[in-house]
Amino acid sequence: MSNARAVLISAGVLIDGTGAPPLRPGAVLIDGDRIRAVGSRVDAPADVTRIDFPDATITPGLIDCHVHLSDGGLADAPVQDRDPSGLRVLRMAEHARRTLAAGFTTVRDLGGRDHLEFALRRAAHEGLIRTPRLILAGKIVSTTTAGASSWRGMYRQADGVNQVVTAIREQVAAGADVIKVMATGAVLAPGHERPSSAQFTREELAAAVETAHGMGRRVAAHAHGIDGIRRAVEAGVDTIEHGTHLHEDAGVAKEMAARGVFLVPTLKALAGIADPEGPGVPDDMRAKAHDRRSDRDRTFRLALEVGLPIAMGTDAATPFNRHGENAEELELMVSLGMSPLPAMAAASGVAARALGRDDIGVLAPGMLVDVVVWNGTPHDDIRALQHAPIAVFVGGERVV
Ligand SMILES: [Zn+2]
User: Fold this and answer.
1) Vertex 266: Cα angle to 111 and 337 (nearest 5)
2) How far is the CA of 111 from the centre of ligand 1 (A)?
C-alpha cells in the first residue's frame, strides 16, 4: 500500500478540542481528507510525509458559531446598504479569506445579505476562492421591526405562523443549513427598539422550530431579554445567541442546561459597540450596549456556574469586530473566568456539537482534516491564538 497522500504532523503540544489536557508531544496522521490517528506518538509507515513543529501546538481548526461575512466591522454598517452586490460579494470573499488565515476553518453565518453568501459558497466549491467551511442561515427571520428594516437584504420579516413557516421554507430552499430567528429586539437597531423586549410569540417560535427541525435544520435564536430567551428555550431552539439578560432567571439557564441548549455569548460584539475604538457608532446603539455590559458578564459567569454548554461566537461584522480577529473572543471568555482549555473547546469540540456536526471540531480518528498549528502554547496564554497560525490543513491540503 502506498502512503503518498498520508502526512504525519507532529508538534511539542497537541490539544484535541474536547477540553482534555494537552498531549506533549503530540501527532496527527492525516490521509486525504480524514484523520487516521492521533496520539502522543503515532506509528506511521516509513513512506509518509513528515512535518514537525517542535515549539508549536496542534489544535483542531477553530469554529466561530456566529459571524456575518457580508459586513466588515464598520462603526455604522448601513452606510454600505446601497453598494452594488458585486462589491459586496468581493468583500465577503476577503472576510472569508482573513477568517481562514486566522485558523478558523468553519464559520456559521447567521445572516447574510440578499443571499449572496450562497453564491460565495458556490464559488468556494468551484475552487475560485478559499473560504472556511460555511454553515449558512440565509436571511434572518424576524417580526416586523425597525431593526429588521434597517439592514437591507439581511432580514426576512414575517408575522404570524403562516408567514414564519413560509420564510423558513424560503431560506431552506435557497440553501440554508440553519435557521436564525429574532426572539428579541436588537442593539444595532434604532433607539426605540429594545433588546429586552420579546418579539415573536410562543406560537410563532414553536412553528419556526417545528418547520426547521422537520427539515433537519437547527434553530439559532437571537435573544437579549429574558422573556424572549425563555420563549425561545421553551419552543425548543438549539442555540441562544447573545443571551445578555439570562442572569435575571437562573431557572431558564438551568432549563437550557437540562435541554442541552447552547449559549453563544458574543462578548466581543457588545464590547465593540459599548467602547468603540473609533468614532461613528450611533449614540443610541452605543448607550444600549453600554447599559448591558454588566448583564453580559453576569450571564457568562452564571453559564459557567450552571454548566451551560458554551459555544464560541463573535458576531464578527458588528462595529470594530473584524473578521480574522475572531480569537479575541476567547481572551474575553478567559477574562470572565473560563479556563483556556474549555474556552478552546468552546471554539472546537463544543462548537461542532452546537452546529450539529460530528465530523469536525475534535482531533480523533475518522474526523475530517481540520488541523491548525500555532506558535506557542495557547493553553498557557490564550492570546497565542490571536497570531496567525503557522500551518492550516483542510481536507487533503495545506492551505496556510
Ligand atoms: Zn449577529
Assistant:
1) 165
2) 7
